[in-house]
Specification:
The chain is mostly helical and 241 residues long. The chain is 61% helix and 6% strand. Strand 1 and strand 2 form a beta hairpin. It starts with 14 loop residues before the first helix and ends with a strand.
Length: 241
Amino acid sequence: MSKIFNKSGGYRKLYSFNFATIVHLGAIAFCKRFVPWQEDPLGKVVGQMVGAARSGRINIAEGSERAGTSTETEIKLTDVARASLAELQNDLETWLAEREIIPWSVSNPEHQKVSAVKLEPFAYTDDTLHDYWTYLHREKHKFDPWFKSDDPAVFANALIVLIQRATALLSRQMESQEEEFVRNGGIKERMYKARTETTAGVAAAPQCPQCDKPMRRRKSAKGEFWGCTGYPDCKGTRDVE
């Protein structure tokens, strides 16, 4: 296990990423069906909505990949993802408000149905790209009753519920990331700690009986021993007492 780098990647297993991906695809479909170009000649509405959805999804993936070298960057990108999805939610709320449509109450049966739909976990395989998208499309179809509705208000409300689910998951991720940062610090702290521990180990080591260089504790099938740091040029050894 690395003394410097955190675990990274694996974002396809995150429920937040999978909800955000479904929201991204849903936002594209919503705009194609219900935001006609005549009402958006410059493409700003569509561009902003789809862009916000994409930002939510992509920043989760980027944050996960950057986690190896910077928990701080991971936290910032997770926060950007959450903020981008909040931006999309507000655009959808505005779209409803322009038509004097009130968003679903949490006690609305449809709201409860969308909230109750569960995603299956994704497991990495030796054919990840193919298997992931097979999985994602299967999970996305669970929301067809709302995404394929002829009523745009139903589609918009379903997207809002999914955004709320994704942002709640991201908030919990950030709490976990904060705990990790407080517990283990950033990469500079880990690099300093690893270097200090290694230097201290060398300083406490005996000198090589053949070349006087410091020695390093090593392991073999017979147990631990001191080996010269000049190996393979010098093969001096000492027993560990």
